[in-house]
Amino acid sequence: MSVNLFDDVWRPGEERDGYASRERLVGEELGAALWGGTMYELGPGERICPYHWHVGEEEWLLVAAGTPTLRTPDGERVLRAWDVAVFRRGPEGVHEVRNDGDAVACVLLLSSLSDPEVSVYPDSGKVGASGGWSRSDDVRVGLRNRPEANIEYFDGEA
């Protein structure tokens, strides 16, 4: 199976202002089982998601068009078409991709898939856990919290 990334096949992205308003689930289109892939169209001022890192997944970024800004522990830099970056598992892979330019930017994020997965958001102090992605929609689990709000292991147990 194959897809063409230049085909105009988009779906609505995040409804929150400032985040990617259009995306394309390339991994899903291809029927991939071990890798995910999402193409994002970033209008001026939009970003993909908050600054974060993954416990189980490694991600790769390919810039297809425009000049998005990449934030990592090494600082910020403007990327251009055909630049590639990798975000390794763990704190060294923390990243954020946003469009500070005046024109639309398109980026493809490829990732290994981990189910369950844990993501850490250093700017806000959140930790997120999700799982059940390979099963039906009614058993998917998504939790977000801050470590100081954790409950004790035996909380609610008899």
List keywords for this structure.
mainly beta, 6-stranded antiparallel beta sheet, 4-stranded antiparallel beta sheet, globular
Q: What's the topology here?
A:
Blueprint: E1 11-12, E2 22-24, H1 26-30, E3 35-42, E4 53-54, E5 59-65, E6 69-72, E7 75-78, E8 84-87, E9 96-98, E10 105-112, E11 117-121, E12 126-131, E13 141-145
Antiparallel strand pairs: 1-2, 2-3, 3-10, 4-11, 5-8, 5-10, 6-7, 6-9, 11-12, 12-13
Q: What does it look like?
A:
The protein has 158 residues and is mainly beta. It has one helix at residues 26-30, and strands spanning 11-12, 22-24, 35-42, 53-54, 59-65, 69-72, 75-78, 84-87, 96-98, 105-112, 117-121, 126-131, 141-145. The chain is 3% helix and 39% strand. The longest helix is centred in the first third of the chain and has 5 residues, at 26-30. The chain is globular. The model has no long low-confidence stretch (mean pLDDT 93).
Strand line-up in the sheet with most strands = 1-2-3-10-5-8
Radius of gyration: 17 Å
Assembly level: single chain
Total number of strands: 13
The structural class is mainly beta
Percentage of residues assigned to helices? under 10%
Mean pLDDT: 93
What does the main sheet amount to? 6 strands, antiparallel
Q: What is the gist of this entry?
A:
The chain has 158 residues and is mainly β. Helices cover 3% and strands 39% of the residues. It has one helix and 13 strands, in the order ββαβββββββββββ.
